[in-house]
Amino acid sequence: MADQFIDLRDKTAFVTGAAQGQGAAHARTLADLGARVVLTDLSEPAVRAVADGIDGETLACSLDVGSTSAWAEAMGRAADRFGQVDVLVNNAGILIKEPLTELTEENLVATLRVNLVGAILGMQAVVPLMRERGGSIINIASTAGLGGYPGGLAYSASKWALRGATRSAAGELGPLGIRVNCVCPGAIDTAMITDETRAGGGAVAGQPIPRVGTPSEVAAMVAFLASDAARYCTGQDFVVDGGQSS
Length: 246
Ligand code: NAD
Hints:
42% helix, 7-stranded parallel sheet, 15% strand, alpha/beta, single chain
């Protein structure tokens, strides 16, 4: 049974981009498995609405992941409320589709700021809170970080780079008992995909499992990596993509 194998009752989890989509699913799943959950996103009212629907101990905070000072404030609020953070899910992300020849510097920098710099700042912010007890950092990359696709240059570059940052951090933090892994979702049914993909078109049509995934199917992997069941797993990519990249 998942609730015996994956037991998060002694853990506090911190999730970014939790106001909707996969982040909201991660927060709900981690709470269902017993974790206290800090839900963060750009809009505090939006993330509080998700937190209010969770049956468990939660804290809702605004956090722009690209801001070092915002990370310090949100981690401070988490520490004041729960005394510890054991799990960080760097889930916040943006997708701006522009081909190389049309990609603006502004959109390139914005993508890297959220998808890459935001996750790195999060890892830096959480380490002091994990030093004593160890912990698990889960960086949400993408199958776009395993390949490339026309129009997805900035996004793909940010997710490839996040995989590199994950491996480097895993090497540095492993001796402290802090594990760092990536989850690479394929097409998941959130605001980030098109109606064509949602209907089973494009890359999804050729997958071994020819449908988009659900946020809860990714959350199951996040919950495993958050738990002590994954205590020997670090520096890896865990792909949840219906076989798209196989
Ligand atoms: P989504 O657009 O529904 O959610 C993204 C969330 O990130 C939103 O709540 C948004 O407000 C938040 N966010 C954006 N910028 C932020 C910032 N600066 N600070 C804090 N929060 C910010 O999309 P989703 O599918 O739930 O995306 C979750 C993660 O999964 C992202 O990292 C995305 O790149 C990744 N991903 C998505 C898919 C997919 O098919 N949906 C596939 C692979 C990877």
